[in-house]
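Slide 14.
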Amino acid sequence: MKLARDTSGALFVEHLIAFLPVMYFFLATWQLIDLFAADLVVRRAANAAVRAAVVVLPDDPNSFGRDSDIHKYAGLRREYVQRAAELVLMAAGNIEDNVRVELTGTFSEHNPITAEVTANYRCTAAWVNIVCGGQPTRALTARSTHAYQGARFSYDSI
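Slide 15: predicted structure.
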């Protein structure tokens, strides 16, 4: 009977009841802020990729080997555009290595080209990943469009 009337642990139990939801909300908010920051980095990576494409695709074929045609998103030119996006994505610590960069548009003078970067964001707190929809990763996609300037001259004449 004496144990049933004992109230010495009530404060600790009340503390746990109040602390756990506050801590959960704090961690979920932190995860959400980290997700938004990663989304900004992916958007910047798309911008870097399309800017790299504008420079690299019309560049001198002597810099890329004869098997790499001008205005073609393939070979070493593709690797350079991909690398431009990956270098930016290194700023976000929770982005996985499997990054996909796709270019769309007509690679001719003054036409717009669009880079689409898709990267997987790794959710850090598994028990709080309500922010990530209950999954360990979440795909982030961003697009950026720029005018393709192209080269107005032939590199063979240089």
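Speaker note: Strands lie at 100-105, 111-122, 137-148.
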